[in-house]
Design brief:
Blueprint: H1 2-7, H2 12-18, H3 23-36, E1 39-42, E2 46-49, H4 54-62, E3 76-78, H5 83-93, E4 97-102, E5 106-112, H6 113-120, E6 136-137, E7 144-145, H7 150-160, E8 164-170, E9 177-184, H8 185-200
Parallel strand pairs: 3-4, 7-8
Antiparallel strand pairs: 1-2, 4-5, 5-6, 8-9
Length: 201
């Protein structure tokens, strides 16, 4: 790579000659450096240094990851579900956020652990209170779409200090949003760990 950086554009034959290697021996290495984005190649011109650091290439890769490839299944409940049943659902599904829907899957609200804890601290009958009383309602819900990048979703999680985002798309009738997935802080962590494993391999 240093040879290309200093003398590029330079052909594969010229690089091989400088290293006292055959072109065939060098070909896989040049292919890897080109695919990784460190070098670029042009027919009849040769290889040249792209000038990007490993960090820049990693950042570019991260910013291409899409929500649709990392989203997990959403846990949805109806507005009429009791707070008691919502707490049970949260424990059984092992999630920190429930998405509340109405009218065949239309997003109506979001209920977090904090919302349920707040209402549970009183002396109310939790089986008599519907989740619609404690949920955050539309349009005050931060969402993301399938085509957004994971970076954009992570930025929203941080900026708005929420634990999960519903992944949404417009309903077929054009009224409201359908919940098709979720992105959580755990999702972002898993993606980060996978990227780390890829770079090691």
């Amino acid at each position: 790579m240093q040879i290309v950086k200093d003398e590029g554009p330079i052909t594969g034959e010229q690089i091989a000659e400088k290293l006292n290697l055959t072109r065939a021996t060098l070909r896989p290495d040049l292919a890897i450096l080109t695919m990784a984005g460190f070098l670029d190649a042009r027919p009849r011109v040769g290889y040249f240094y792209v000038g990007k650091t490993a960090n820049q290439l990693f950042t570019e890769h991260v910013r291409k990851l899409k929500v649709k490839d990392y989203k997990s299944m959403p846990v949805v409940v109806t507005e009429k579900l009791s707070v008691y049943d919502a707490i049970c659902t949260m424990f059984l599904e092992d999630v920190g956020t429930l998405f509340v829907v109405k009218d065949g899957g239309r997003l109506a609200g979001v209920v977090s652990r904090k919302d349920l804890l707040k209402i549970a601290l009183g002396k109310q009958d939790l089986q008599a209170i519907p989740v619609s009383v404690v949920m955050t309602r539309m349009p005050n819900i931060i969402t993301c779409t399938l085509e957004e990048t994971l970076y954009e979703a992570a930025s929203k999680l941080m900026r708005y200090q929420v634990d999960a985002l519903p992944v949404v798309r417009p309903m077929e009738d054009g009224e409201g949003l359908e919940v098709v997935g979720r992105i959580t802080k755990t999702t972002i962590t898993k993606a980060f760990v996978e990227l780390g494993q890829e770079s090691v391999v």
